[in-house]
Amino acid sequence: MTKPRLYSGMQPSADSLQAGNYIGALLQWRDLQDSYDAFFSVVDLHALTQPNDPAALREKTRRTAAQYIAAGIEPSRSTLYVQSHVRAHAELAWILSTITGFGEAGRMTQFKDKSQRYGSDATSVGLFTYPVLMAADILLYQTEVVPVGDDQKQHVELTRDLAERFNSRYGQTFTVPKPVIQKDTARIYDLQNPTSKMSKSSESDAGVLWLLDEPSKTAKKIMRAVTDAEGSVRFDREEKPGVSNLLTIYSALTGRSIEQLESEYAGRGYGDFKKGLAEVVVEEFGPVRERVLALLDDPAELDRILAANAAKADEVADATLSDVYDKVGL
Length: 330
Ligand code: ADP
Ligand code: NA
Known about the structure:
The chain is mainly α and 330 residues long. The protein is built from 13 helices and five strands. It has helices at residues 19-32, 44-47, 54-70, 88-97, 102-106, 109-118, 125-139, 153-170, 215-223, 241-254, 258-264, 270-296, 299-328, and strands spanning 5-10, 37-42, 79-82, 145-148, 178-181. α1 links the parallel β1 (5-10) and β2. It is globular and about 70 Å long. Bound molecules: adenosine-5'-diphosphate and sodium ion. Residues 10-11, 13, 18, 20-21, 23-25, 148-149, 182, 186-188, 197-201 line the site of adenosine-5'-diphosphate.
């Protein structure tokens, strides 16, 4: 029996991924590989919507791919490739942009937020059409399921609308995908500012647990994480966001429930709790980091893996794109 198709991706927007990317995306992707025919992309075309040094972008793309593999995405089982290696993404995006309403694209809240922050001169047309490129990413592979964070839900809704619109105008062409929104319990916050999301694009290093940090640095950041004056290890997102965030990370990486952890640390101080968590994170990230370094040490082998996987992706994407060209009269 063929497995349902799944697509997801991440931008190569930093040299290292952070704990939220690992817990909220990579760990889930790793497990989804069993039940889905999964396509995982490093979306470097999307990354061009931010200013980038060319050599640095190329390096971030390779490092992001290496981190996917090191975290357990198996390139022999899933299709793990770099978006720009498959030309059909940009081509389908153009065609989809011709059936996307200007107002429809303008309603995307991520665009509204980002363009407001950048100002109109620093806001590119590419940032505006970003969700259309994302729709092309998904629709090229006849994707059924798209695991995303809730900030991307609106973009998947647009993707569904475009698929349905194209199908009704030109005849059945695209599978209409369904978003699978990650559980709120998988959301990780900044260690120094535990009400804002941990992010690759965070300005301050102290609050971010980088997957590729040296183990001693990881431990230090956890020992210095913001907590509160109460002194008891208890989950309460409103009153104790710092401790709750640390509990979330602890639970996600060990499979122990929050309740279990609360009773394990009952009557013990935050020092003990943080030491326990630091051990867990270092044990998890350490071997991933070693594997990343080994992969980056053999660039020819990494290139070979990425080229073979791009060829697999290309085959599926080309079939869809040819059908689309045919339907629209190209
Ligand atoms: P970032 O903010 O680090 O640039 P992206 O927006 O590129 O992250 O998201 C890549 C993936 O990682 C998405 O699936 C997203 O849901 C997940 N992700 C990012 N940050 C977090 C977080 N703090 N907690 C949980 N998941 C996250
Ligand atoms: Na981002």
